[in-house]
Amino acid sequence: MEDETYAKELDVAVKAVHMACSLCRRVQHGLISRTSDEIKSKDDDSPVTVADWGVQATVSWLLSEVFGSQSVSIVAEEDVQALSESDSAGLLAAVVDAVNGCLDEAPNFGLQKPDKHLTTQEVLEAIKRCNSTGGPEGRHWVLDPVDGTLGFVRGNQYAVALALIEDGKVIIGVLGCPNYPMKREWLNYHHQYYQSTSPATDDSWEKGCVLYARRGSGKAWLQPLLRGDVNFESQYEARLIRVSSVDDPALATFCEPVEKANSNQSYAAGLAHSVGLRKQPLRVYSMVKYAAIARGDAEVFMKFARCGYKEKIWDHAAGVVIVQEAGGVVTDAGGKPLDFSRGIYLEGLDRGIIVCCGATLHERIVGAVYASWDSSNL
Ligand SMILES: Nc1ncnc2c1ncn2[C@@H]1O[C@H](COP(=O)(O)OS(=O)(=O)O)[C@@H](OP(=O)(O)O)[C@H]1O
Ligand SMILES: [Mg+2]
Ligand SMILES: [Mg+2]
Ligand SMILES: [Mg+2]
């Protein structure tokens, strides 16, 4: 019999991520089809949109309803600071609309909707409730409402990532990838560009999906995106996914962030060359890179953030457990597991993150990091 541990948590998390994807798709279509004031810049100049706050409020509300607002601890990326500024009234109203529109569809996803629409105050409370800082003990939900917000505002790849950490270990990971394309070769095409220059319709481009896994199950699952306007029971079943079996570097594809500011692409290129990876890197926004490894569409993902940047747990938790359960290996560049037990950052991370479909490629790459690091000036 299938192990029922965490069955309810997983079920609710998967449904909540499907709902979040539905919200994001609606907002992204709006952003692309008209010029919009629904994007703000944060203090570090990174973007945040109606979708980031809308998803955070929606998922926070759903988890609190099911598991109890007093007992649920949520670590998530966004706060209400920029939403509360005097010129943000229109933005806040758009967030409240997006949340209520999304929650109206909850029954189609198998979840309960609120008795009446949430007020502005309730939406702000739901966002603010996600102020946990995690840590080594207890249960903490970890949410990146929109990962790859840059990709999102550019009409490209992005992900919704929800994980459950218990006593410092990632137990459940759910990754929504609403723009995951039909063909793996299309992963690094510019989605918006492609849409405007190709006769392909939305349907033939998109193969959006939600991936999920439970730690220790040895299985990772893929569900096509559920539609909010159709009852969920009439929609598709999940299927098992598995990492690629390629271990010859010459046949392997490696992924990395699109933004040069987020990863040292020239160091990764040197490393790739030294281990015999010959193909052009697949540059993809967001945790869709983890999804590509878990689905077997690429073999390696490497990220080397600049010195001083601290990776956050919500940018990795869901992807790590999904890749591991699909048969892959994830460590820092020193070969150690990522430590999710020390608050909002991956404290102690050694240089970068290496995700591989198997141990052979992984050992080669970690070995090459040791051999090349001193001369890399990082
Ligand atoms: N300087 C720097 N270095 C490394 N990482 C950074 C940096 N700045 C931001 N971030 C975080 O990167 C998240 C997106 O990472 P990606 O690997 O997907 O990069 S990229 O979008 O493909 O360029 C992105 O996640 P979101 O904010 O959720 O989009 C950030 O948390
Ligand atoms: Mg992120
Ligand atoms: Mg984000
Ligand atoms: Mg962000």
TrEMBL record:
Q: Which Pfam families match?
A: Inositol_P (PF00459)
Per its UniProt record, what SUPFAM superfamilies does this chain match? Carbohydrate phosphatase
Q: Name one GO molecular function term.
A: 3'(2'),5'-bisphosphate nucleotidase activity
Write down the InterPro entries for this protein, in alphabetical order.
DPNP, Inositol_monoP_metal-BS, Inositol_monoP_superfamily, Inositol_monophosphatase-like, Inositol_monophosphatase_CS
* Statement: the UniProt record of this protein carries the keyword Metal-binding: yes
Q: Which GO biological process annotations does it have?
A: inositol phosphate metabolic process; phosphatidylinositol phosphate biosynthetic process; sulfate assimilation
EC assignment: 3.1.3.7
Q: What does this protein do?
A: Converts adenosine 3'-phosphate 5'-phosphosulfate (PAPS) to adenosine 5'-phosphosulfate (APS) and 3'(2')-phosphoadenosine 5'-phosphate (PAP) to AMP.
**Name of the featured protein:** 3'(2'),5'-bisphosphate nucleotidase
